[in-house]
Task: inverse folding
């Protein structure tokens, strides 16, 4: 019953908000007139109102209404009753913390498990994995747990970035960080490059977009998978 | 009584481990024949033994013995009795988690507060701040708290990196991340570039090395401070 779209980013360099993926979203949200938007990740500290307005304007182009979850008096009931859900990017720790504080983890799992279409971008995609332990974000708040929604049986690394071979900076590359993750955790990690997304539809998990994705499995060399690969065997 | 050296990195591009700072360390550790090394941050998942060997070899050049804390049967007593302490880099979450699990936060605060010289690099510098909420590391384990050793009344961002104006990647710049931090936290943050360190000596906190540092204060524009600036008024 699942119908989930897990996107690396909301925005490609030089294009508008959600513009690169809007054609896919037209089909993805075809059954829903209204999308429930969860603005908790607050990119750049933006207010929930301003963030929701940005999203509303983007979805206006395909004739969808957007309702911000922060305007709902009962957030749990709002999630339960939603025809479609979008969780936008920002800070994954802030997002996760707010989901726990509002006791929304369980109802999100239930609604999306029952087929409510869910779109995540960036932080909203991180939380689709088993945990948020492969986020790139700064831990600016302390959430009650790093466990996430577990819509897929692996972890997501959005905004995946290949090592810059000319860099003289001694901070870790993304690949080094994910390898460190595997010294303490065993689930696979999908490095999703900007412009890529996963479409989870019932039991299939298809890589979409024009780019390959990088897969990190415990005790294996990382490898690339091409667009349209089905990743449902990965666990 | 404090005598603390908080370095952005252990290693500069193209030079050996601790090489750029060894002259300063010769003076800093002049009273100690043996340095207690805390290898918990495990960069790249390296073993405690291998990490301690790397550090031993580096300090051999200035005639210092190094003892790994993991070889001590009573880590708390080892910290209490240490003549000098070095906490190396790696993953800040792994390091913080191990410090809490071994109940070392209190004794470290006490020993360093009483004047035991403390050197931190990278993750070992992050934990010198009020919290680890401005680390760059991936949250690969869940520590019991993000609160850190609070040797200084602000937060550290080691490996500080200026924005790449040519980048087409949509992930946040370091400055954007620290600004997000200030939507949820009010303490100042020092962005320490690689090659810079802070020397905390009694009540003075002097920026050392050849580069300026970037200071982020709540509700203020970020600004640069030159080497040899005393930052003890920052809080």
Result:
């Amino acid at each position: 019953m699942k119908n989930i779209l897990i996107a690396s980013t909301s925005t490609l360099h030089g294009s508008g908000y959600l513009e690169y993926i809007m054609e896919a979203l037209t089909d993805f949200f075809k059954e829903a007139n209204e999308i429930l938007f969860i603005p908790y990740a607050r990119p750049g500290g933006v207010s929930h109102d301003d963030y929701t307005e940005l999203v509303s304007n983007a979805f206006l182009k395909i004739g969808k209404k957007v309702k911000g979850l922060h305007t709902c008096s009962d957030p749990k009931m709002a999630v339960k009753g939603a025809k479609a859900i979008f969780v936008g990017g920002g800070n994954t720790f802030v997002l996760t913390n707010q989901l726990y504080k509002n006791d929304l983890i369980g109802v999100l799992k239930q609604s999306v498990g029952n087929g409510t279409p869910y779109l995540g971008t960036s932080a909203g995609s991180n939380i689709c994995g088993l945990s948020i332990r492969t986020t790139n974000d700064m831990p600016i708040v302390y959430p009650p747990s790093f466990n996430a929604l577990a819509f897929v049986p692996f972890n997501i690394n959005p905004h995946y970035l290949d090592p810059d071979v000319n860099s003289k900076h001694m901070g870790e590359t993304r690949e080094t960080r994910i390898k460190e993750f595997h010294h303490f955790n065993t689930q696979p990690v999908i490095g999703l490059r900007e412009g890529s997304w996963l479409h989870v539809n019932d039991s299939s998990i298809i890589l979409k977009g024009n780019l390959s994705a990088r897969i990190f499995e415990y005790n294996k060399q990382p490898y690339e998978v091409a667009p349209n690969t089905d990743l449902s065997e990965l666990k």
Observations:
- The helical segments of chain A are 22-28, 48-60, 75-81, 92-101, 105-113, 123-126, 174-181.
- Chain A has a mean pLDDT of 96.
